[in-house]
Amino acid sequence: MIWIGLAIVLITFYFIYKNYEARLVLALSGLLMAVIGQFIVGSDTTVSAAVNAFVKQLVNGGLVPTIVTVMGFGAVMTYTKCSDHLVNALVRPLTHVPAIVVPGAVIITWLMNIVLPSAAGVAAAVGVLLIPALIALRVRPVMAAAAVFLGTWGSVISPGLMFNPQIATIAYKAGEIPEADAMVVIMQEALPSAIGVVVAAVVLAAVCFFLKEGVGSTKDVDEKASGVNGDFKVNPIMALIPIVPLFLLVIASKQVGLLPTKTFSVPVCMLIGTALGMLVGLVHKQPAGECSKRFCKGAGDGFNNVVILIAAAALFAAGMKSIGLTGALVNAMKGSQSVAMFSAAAGPFIMAVISGSGNAAALAFNEAITPHAADFGMTVVQLGAVAQIAAGLGRSMSPVAGGVIILAGIAGANPMEVVKRTALPVLIAVVVVTIAMYTLN
């Protein structure tokens, strides 16, 4: 039965790699394993229990409000152009120091991805501004696209990313943290991730220097980028609004404690940011009703694209448990801490590179393996964070990721040429972040 379960898992990831609907594939695979587990193995995890695991995620009070409000807030920031003002405010200083243009673009995109946690969404929102700005500075278009693409894993420390609330919930159930607060997880991920993005940016700058694709490497071009030619007037207030919720969350975290944590939860902070965005919209004659529609659409997309995927992964994990595969994997990892440490990074990373999205692999890993972190001599946060960060980094060197396709289109470049430039920085970053997560926490 374990071999049959392993075969089902491999077939599942093959179908996801082939771009079949991930939610459907995970749910059907989970049900199949649950049926085998109940009626052939005689497992305690029945089909009904597997379905209940799916339903439980749809009404998860710690998960659903966080994701839908973050996604709704991001949609409002895009509609009101507040995100454009923030990007332009960040880009302008780069024009004065050519050496930091490429690594600076990586870090700017990474920071913006915390506010707008969709990789494809931030690629579109930031790429349409940054890539023309870099090209206007005579950076080669393919390197401009690579710089932005390399920053599309900043969402790993976003409160709206599906994994952080998920890991917080698992850690809370394990008694590792006092409450299911995603910010507790993010605070432990922040330093390793920040080290990782700096390392990735520096390595890409070295690649850029070696290939001679940096500032001044192409013939003169028209300055089409508003952030470079000065036509775009940055409104400081609009530029600050996207970071207000993150600022509130940081100062309300237990580590800082300047505001009451229970009052300033993720949904509350995101709604405050949304309200400020609506006020700005009204000042610029954008109807509040339209802002509301954008918020609701963003929230609905968050439920559709994120929450249901998490629920499907929970059903898949329940099926793995029913057929006995989870127990076998846990026992195998118990024999060696290094095996568990390597698997947490390698599995989601490879899946992300192949399929363009490591979400399914990381979600399944966190549902099935991460709760047993103590058996491997690690914490839930360490093991779960490594899995999801590795998935985010792996996506940043995948030629089939939505973000690279968008950016390559903006730059007029080949996606394969873009990922050739992000591959080395990503590989080094995943090693650095993994070591940092295991040693600094």
From TrEMBL:
Pfam family, one: DcuC
Name of the protein in its database record: C4-dicarboxylate transporter DcuC
Location of this chain's protein in the cell: Cell membrane
Superkingdom of origin organism: Bacteria
Annotated membrane topology: Multi-pass membrane protein
Homology family: Belongs to the DcuC/DcuD transporter (TC 2.A.61) family.
Gene: dcuC
Alphabetic keyword roster: Cell membrane, Membrane, Transmembrane, Transmembrane helix, Transport
The species this protein was found in: Mesosutterella porci
Lineage: Bacteria, Pseudomonadati, Pseudomonadota, Betaproteobacteria, Burkholderiales
NCBIfam families attached to this UniProt entry: DcuC_1
InterPro entries for the chain: C4_dicarb_anaerob_car, C4_dicarb_anaerob_car-like
Transmembrane segments: 24-42, 62-82, 94-112, 118-137, 144-163, 190-211, 232-252, 264-283, 303-320, 340-365, 397-416, 423-440
